[in-house]
Amino acid sequence: MDKIDIDLLALLQEDARMTISELSKKLALSRPSITERLHRLQEQGVIEGFSARVSPAKIGRDTLLIIQISDLKVSANEFEEMITGDLDVIECHRVTGHFGYFIKAAVDGMDSLRLLVDRLMPYGNVHTSIILTSPVTFRPILPRP
User: Residue 52 pLDDT more than 80?
Assistant: First the structure.
């Protein structure tokens, strides 16, 4: 991966809707060259996909949570199968340490929070924190120089 690929990744992470023509101008490369680089980065799995960042609050899910699960009472496979189907869960990470999983969830208030905790309790010990602010909500990720 060269500097142009890194610059391309940075631009796309800031605005994935940027056109090939805009990328071509910003990187001073031809459109076919940009297209070729994009295809190569996708084929290599560096670019996994393109998506929109949606504001949870603007769609009525203004209560964000970090939930820690410890002392799992079922197999990891069973828990992960259940958690992937829960639409309140927006991220789930299996981790090392005392807690087995860190979950980020977005709900529409305290009743939904209670229902989510009730759904999780049969699977392990549930430790819930409400997110007050998020100083870093997104940061482009690039290879280190």
Answer: yes
User: Of 96, 105, 118, 120, whose CA–CA distance to 66 is shortest?
Assistant: 105
The C-alpha atoms of residue 90 and residue 116 are separated, in whole angstroms, by 13
| pLDDT bucket at 145, cuts 50 / 70 / 90 | confident
Give the tokens for residue 125.
Answer: 């010990």
Chain region(s) in the chain for CATH 1.10.10.10: 3-43
First to last CA, the chain: 11
Q: Where in the chain is CATH 3.30.70.920?
A: 57-130
Residue matched to tokens 């631009």: 11
- What pLDDT shows up at residue 144? 87
The pTM score is 0.86
Q: Are 105 and 65 in contact (CB under 8 A)?
A: yes
- CATH number attached to the domain at 3-43: 1.10.10.10
Question: What DSSP string runs through 14-80?
Answer: H-TT--HHHHHHHHT--HHHHHHHHHHHHHTTSS--------TGGGT--EEEEEEEES-SS-HHHHH
